[in-house]
Design a protein that fits this description.
Strand 8 and strand 9 form a beta hairpin. The protein is about 35% helix and about 25% strand. It starts with a helix and ends in a 15-residue tail after the last helix. The protein has a 7-stranded mixed β-sheet, with helices on both faces. It contains 11 helices and 20 strands. The chain is α+β, with helices and mostly antiparallel strands.
């Protein structure tokens, strides 16, 4: 959506195909990073964007065996809004779609499920999709695959996926939020268990870390045992755990980290999770995807306007530019996941990790994770123009 908006803003004819009839479904990440607020500022949209209902936090903390520790302080970031925003992703997408709709060159087709690619010899010339009105063919100078970690586009393009692996999975569910609950707490670490909590105003979006492929074992132990584990991890949730009435209330997020060896071929490029699936660690997947979108618009708008085809050299430049930050963040995620997995087995004995103890003693150290999470590596800025039709 962000790529389509920016390209349409630059005067490029864009068609965005959306599989569903609306955006109202349970996305797994609702964070608006300081870098995204900065992009809204650069686009002149920050004031309007801030009117979309959301919560803001200037710092993140966690609880280790009953002790609160401060992890990140965003207030020192030199951006227009040095906070993490918590905004339902459907609201974010609706906002961007609304902004894009102001341009005649933008078109959004809903309930269009992409099923394959159109080819002319070895060149990709468009996509096929199914819609309520029947089959659809869309021809395009460039197909941009943004359909996530289970990407139909990258599979159809026969692009090679390299899996890094992940030792954890996450159980994803919601519990009601009460007025006297504590403020935003990134996570609770207790007795080898880890529960991530995201404040969505009316409810907590919860992520419970488990061993890779350990869901069947947890189900065999029973829902009562699962509720007991949650109560011991975050005692303040004890009075609402009966809201989990069945395993259908709990979704399994299979964590994986991967990347494409080559993101592109003639007539196509993949970005976001379609090019590099991220772990939920740090909640940075959305940030990477938006940064990819900005870089794509910056590099692609001119050849899309001026040339009959987008040269492979331009697509290669986009991959090279975005591979560096992606691989750095993925390497950090792998390292953190390994540490999480180890500490889940030793946490009761080892207590608060060394870096977090140091961050409590020396608050300036909290700027390091704030920078990595809030801004990332090689942040992008708006260089594509606004060209009114």
């Amino acid at each position: 959506m962000m790529t389509g908006f920016l390209l349409a803003r630059a005067g490029i004819d864009v068609i965005v195909l959306e599989k569903h009839k609306d955006f109202f479904r349970d996305f797994r990440g609702d964070t608006i990073h300081p870098s995204t607020f900065q992009l809204m500022h650069e686009l002149g949209l920050l004031e309007d964007f801030l009117r979309v209902p959301h919560q803001e936090v200037s710092s993140l903390s966690a609880i280790f065996n009953g002790h609160e520790v401060h992890l990140a302080d965003f207030s020192h970031l030199k951006v227009a809004r040095p906070v993490i925003g918590l905004m339902p992703q459907w609201d974010f997408l609706n906002f961007i779609a609304g902004q894009a709709a102001r341009y005649k060159s933008f078109s959004l087709i809903r309930q269009a499920d992409v099923t394959g690619l159109l080819m002319n010899h070895d060149k990709i010339t468009g996509v096929t999709a199914t819609t309520p009105d029947g089959p659809l063919k869309v021809f395009a100078k460039l197909v941009i695959g943004t359909d996530g970690r289970q990407s139909t586009v990258r599979t159809a393009a026969d692009l090679t996926v390299i899996e890094t692996g992940a030792p954890i999975d996450v159980l994803w569910f919601r519990l009601s939020r009460h007025p006297d609950d504590p403020g935003q707490i990134l996570g609770n670490f207790s007795k080898g268990r880890i529960l991530i909590l995201l404040d969505r105003s009316a409810y907590w979006q919860c992520g419970y870390v488990i061993d890779k492929d350990g869901y069947d074992r947890i189900k065999e132990e029973g829902l009562n045992k699962f509720r007991t584990d949650l109560a011991e991890t975050s005692p303040f949730l004890k009075d609402r755990l009966l809201e989990l009435t069945d395993w259908t209330d709990i979704q399994l997020l299979s964590v994986k980290i991967d990347h494409l060896h080559t993101w592109y071929r003639e007539g196509l490029i993949c970005i976001g999770d379609a090019a590099h699936a991220m772990s939920p660690v740090g909640g940075v997947g959305i940030n990477l995807a938006i940064q990819d979108a900005v870089a794509a618009a910056n590099l692609l708008w001119r050849p899309l306007r001026d040339q009959p085809d987008v040269p492979l050299t331009v697509l290669a430049r986009l991959q090279i530019r975005r591979t560096f930050p992606t691989r750095i963040i993925q390497a950090l995620q792998v390292r953190i996941q390994q540490g999480i997995n180890h500490r889940r087995k030793t946490l009761e004995k080892t207590g608060v990790p060394l870096f977090m103890r140091l961050a409590e003693r020396y608050p300036f150290l909290r700027r390091i994770p704030a920078r990595l999470v809030g801004i990332g590596v090689r942040p992008e800025h708006i260089h594509s123009p606004e060209i009114r039709n």
